[in-house]
Design a protein that fits this description.
- The structure is a single chain.
- By secondary structure, this protein is of the alpha+beta class.
- 25% of the residues lie in helices and 25% in strands.
- The strands form three sheets. The protein has a seven-stranded mixed beta sheet, sandwiched between helices.
- A hairpin with a 5-residue loop joins strand 11 and strand 12.
- Helix 2 crosses helix 8 and helix 6 crosses helix 8.
- The longest helix has 18 residues.
- The protein binds zinc ion (ZN).
């Protein structure tokens, strides 16, 4: 029998080994650099074939969203392609994954990863499509590019941007679905009426470092939109500058939510310049999306801000205020969309891609009203 080896020393990896005692392995999730946030994990186990492991994340109770653990199931893969639900329980601040290991190598993650290697492959194949313009509009503090696409020729300005919070990997799965649809014949109606601006990954540094929520210097990018700086948030600075050049009629910011077991959207209630017409278009988007797919609903979600209390450091509020845009935060679950559950995979990368198609189909139907 070999020794069991645990490591996360790869693109997007995050775990720290505490101890191995027989088949019980105690682990900790590392904090985002210069931050107290942590929840994303992604690690490999080697040399445990034929053993039933009890993998205990012993600092789960101190994570950013401990209320996300009850009812949550970790993802497990033997081929880095299919990510199935693993038997997972949460008690006394410890998240325990019980797993019978059948292969020499097995990977565990908070959600199906979307690594920087996958990002580069997505960017490369998208940039080669007809009708697509790629630009690198900025550089991160770790020296990675901020990739930006424009697709379409229409007068309306649509912005899609994702993964301000790097641990929310479903957001870039959504982008993969969006970019595949936008470069297909199905998008021709939308692209005649709108120019679609896409930033598939707002936070490459956090992605590669295996962060939950922040960039290389511990900045939560979705609290920087009122006043981004080159020192703390160059990612937001370059994207907001581009938005100032193009204007924004419709914006969609793609995220994942730790606790709520459903897809939902959040809006911009409480901005100083709120109008009912702007709000009605937000509501229409949600209602039409719920009618279009069983993978969306409008009952569960975040509480709405009271008039005048919107936090303008958050992108959705900032863009609604700054441009009068219909501005949408999309949240997808780490758990499952309980109204339409999948007992084998839970919410998944593939379903995130499908939801992007539903979102863009609904947007096409209301683009004239924007
Ligand atoms: Zn988020």
């Amino acid at each position: 029998m070999h020794d069991i080896k645990i490591d996360a020393g790869f693109d997007g990896g995050n775990i720290r080994l505490v101890r191995i005692e027989g088949d019980t392995i105690d682990l900790e999730i590392a904090k985002d650099h210069d931050s107290d946030f942590y929840q994303w994990f992604y690690f490999r186990v080697a040399g445990a074939k034929g053993r039933r492991l009890s993998l205990r994340i012993v600092n789960a109770g101190g994570s950013a969203y401990p209320f996300g653990w009850p009812g949550y199931k970790a993802r497990v893969s033997t081929d880095l392609d299919a990510w199935r639900l693993a038997e997972t329980s949460y008690a006394d601040g410890v998240l325990t994954i019980d797993h019978p290991v059948e292969t020499e190598l097995v990977w565990f993650a908070y959600f199906a990863p979307y690594t920087m290697a996958m990002h580069h492959a997505l960017v490369a194949r998208t940039a080669l499509q007809a009708g697509v313009t790629h630009r690198q509009i900025g550089t991160t503090l770790d020296g990675q590019g901020i990739d930006y696409f424009t697709i379409g020729t229409g007068p309306k300005s649509v912005w899609l941007y994702a993964r301000q919070h790097p641990g929310e990997s479903m957001a870039e799965w959504w982008m993969e679905g969006a970019l595949e649809w936008l470069t297909s014949p199905a998008a021709s109606d939308l692209l005649g009426k709108a120019t679609v601006h896409v930033v598939p990954n707002m936070n490459p540094d956090g992605t590669r470092r295996g962060h939950l929520r922040t960039n290389a210097v511990g900045t939560n990018l979705n609290r920087e939109w009122h006043d981004p700086t080159a020192e703390k948030s160059p990612e937001v600075l370059c994207v907001r500058k581009m938005m100032d050049e193009t204007g924004v009629d419709f914006a969609l910011d793609v995220h994942g939510d730790e606790a709520i077991a459903a897809n939902f959207i959040a809006g911009f209630e409480g901005i100083p310049s709120w109008t009912d017409a702007q709000g009605d278009l937000f509501t229409r988007f949600g209602e039409e999306l719920a009618a279009a797919t069983p993978d969306f609903q409008t009952e569960k979600g975040y509480p709405k801000a009271k008039p005048g209390t919107a936090n303008l450091s958050m992108s959705t509020n900032q863009l609604a205020e700054r441009f009068g845009a219909v501005s949408v935060t999309l949240e997808m679950p780490f758990k499952d969309h309980d109204l339409n559950p999948d007992p084998a995979f839970g919410w998944s990368g593939e379903r995130s891609k499908q939801l992007a198609v539903s979102c863009l189909t609904v947007l096409t139907g209301m683009i004239d009203a924007l």
